[in-house]
Amino acid sequence: MKFMVKIVIIVLLAFTSGYAGAYSRLDIDFETGAVFSGYNDIRIPNETGTDISFSKELKTDPTYFVRTKINYSINDKHNFAIFAAPLRLNANGKVNKPVFFEGVEFPANVQLKGKYRFDSYRFTYRYDFHPSERLMFGIGITAKIRDAAIGIEDNMTKSEKLNTGFVPLINFRGEWMPFGKIGLLLDGDALAAPQGRAEDVLIAIRFRITKDISLKLGYRILEGGADAGSVYSFTLVHYIVFGSIVSF
Question: Cα–Cα distance between 201 and 215 in angstroms, integer?
Answer without folding.
Answer: 17
